[in-house]
Amino acid sequence: MSPLFLPEDVILQVLSYLPVKFLMQLRCVSKAWNTIISDPKFIKLHLQRSTKDRNLTQILCLFKDSCMQPYPLKTLLNTPSILDSTGQDFSLGADTRYQLIGSCNGLLCFRVFTFTDFQNTLFQLWNPATNAFSVSFGQHSNSHTHICDYLRFSRFSFGYHNSTDTYKILYMGPNKFEIFSYGGNVWKLIQLFHVVPLDHWKIAPGKRCIFNHDMYLNDTINFLARDIAQHIVIISVNLGTDTYQELLPPQEFVEVPLHLPTISVLEDSLCFCHHTQKTHFIIWKMKELGIEKSWTLFLKISYQDLNIGIKYRYFMAPLCPYENGIALILANRRRGLEVIIYNWSDNRIEKTRLSNVEWMFPYDYVESLVSPY
Question: How big is the CA angle at 285 (ends 341 and 152), to the nearest 5 degrees?
Fold first, then answer.
């Protein structure tokens, strides 16, 4: 009986559905398979399919011993006891700090600085699935004289421009932002005379500021800011044109002093999340990116249904849709960190207490073969 030979395009299609771990092993099967799996076109195809499968979405966990590891949400909910700090260790000495600034196409971007030389920030990429690190690919200089001012006012984010296949870093400061393209060596300055990025540093309970992430979506980086009248606005930066658009939050939003709003990305849509005065947690979805009239109420969840003790100061942020509901992070100083699954069909909740996890990052992360080099 003669052996069965499959056409190369069939092999390619089959391989594109496999997890990265298996693909890394299959590269050793033959030179032909190694060529297929290493081909940039295959890497893009695999990424496109992984991104569309919501079951592959993972959550980034930061452990108390400075290790970071992505985990599927089902693992966090069903078997949290297996979580351990087997991920990448970012505790590289008392002086060096790695701070995650964004996730895109399976790559995590970090800013790297030291307390003794915080005026010069380096950037490095890591692919957790392949455990490949880039060398430092850029540097940003600042004029801060104190480390606290640097951490408070130097905000960075990470994104990707699809049509030019270019990764970019966005620096946000008072009255300006700067854009850096991976592969270049120049920061492009854009003035913002009337807005300042929303600052959570002084009023954030616990680590609440971590949730004020700047969200990447469809070639844009979006962040919250205050205008000259102290109103909260959304600044949406287009990574293709290096320009920005100022967006207003939903008209029904009324700012509450205790809990500042956040933005997130759910189901490929920009979302605006806020609390009402001791009654509800509300999520609005912008159906058309950049169109203020497209704000639509997505979820309105009562504190009573969530069984939240109002006497505790807490913070909440959405992780991602999950089965017939949505996964939320609930955090406060007294009760630590929890993941809540809110089932909107019957207003039922499921709480899971996690151990040894310092924090969770609400980035949509999927494994990829994309090289950080």
Answer: 80
293: Cβ–Cβ under 8 A, 6 or more apart, which residues? none
- Residue 167 pLDDT: 93
Residue 259 is given by DSSP the state S
Find out whether 69 and 61 touch, Cβ atoms under 8 Å.
yes
- DSSP codes of every residue in 66-123: SEEEEEEHHHHHH-GGG--S-SEE---SSSEEEEEEEEETTEEEEEEEESSSTTEEEE
Pull the structure tokens for residue 160: 């990707």
**pTM for this entry:** 0.87
- Which of 157, 108, 114 has its CA nearest to residue 133? 108
Q: What is the pLDDT of residues 255-273, one digit of tens each?
A: 766 677 889 988 889 999 9
Count of H-run helices and E-run strands, the chain = 7, 26
Encode burial over 223-240: b for 16+ CB neighbours within 10 A, e otherwise: bbbeeeeeebbbbbbebe
Give me the sign of the Cα torsion angle 200, 202, 206, 207. positive
Average pLDDT, integer, range 7-21: 87
C-alpha separations of 317 from 282, 296, 339, 354, 367 in Å: 10, 18, 10, 16, 23
Is the distance from CB of 295 to CB of 284 less than 8 angstroms?
Answer: yes
Q: What digits encode the pLDDT tens for the residues 158-198?
A: 999 999 999 999 998 777 889 999 877 789 998 887 887 77
Residue 312 CA to residue 278 CA, distance in Å, equals: 11
